[in-house]
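seq:
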Amino acid sequence: MPTSSSLGSRLLGVLTSAPNWIGLALASIALVLKGFGLLGNAALPVAVLGYAAGFVVGGLGLGFPTLSRPGWEALQFSDDGDTREAMERALQGVRGLTQYNPDDRLPASLQTRVLELCKALDALRRQWERSRGHLSLDDGFDARRIAIVHLPEALNAYLSIPPSYARTRTLSNGKTALDTFAQTLAQLEANVAQLADDLAAQDAQAFLAHSQMLSRELRPPPAPSGEPAAH
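struct:
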């Protein structure tokens, strides 16, 4: 879904387009003539017709402006600031472009895998935030970079290739661009799964340590010497 800022920029493009200026120029001539008393009540209809004629002529000669969404916009995200906001922003962009799927470049199976990877990264982020354990600095950097840099860059690179070429031409690695992108996804999926497993193992160990501590604290005190232990 286009954002309000992108829609506003496209609307500005229409307002500053050559057909719009030509139409306004012809409409202005009618208004000037009315100011001199030469058109009277016919000035407004003439201005509208003048604008329409100028817009059509300008569009035919120079191209009509459009409010429609461009074919696709490359994903670029800044790897700074709050980790949660940066990852959420990047994953939202990847999801949107994947679902839009310009020119059907992504087969359904790859669409599903990209969306599932976004879901796994989002789950990893939430797990990380509530974890009893912690990701190391290196692991935390890897998780952030996968979401903000590696996945968007891989998607951008693949989508920039025409579909027929991406699916049929062999690259220098002996694979098509489609196969290469699928291989890259597999690597990212494996990395995210490993990070999630490592964090879950830390959480499980922290849970075990906490449970053992509670067991020791709740264990009944030993009975005084010579008296039977309490049951």
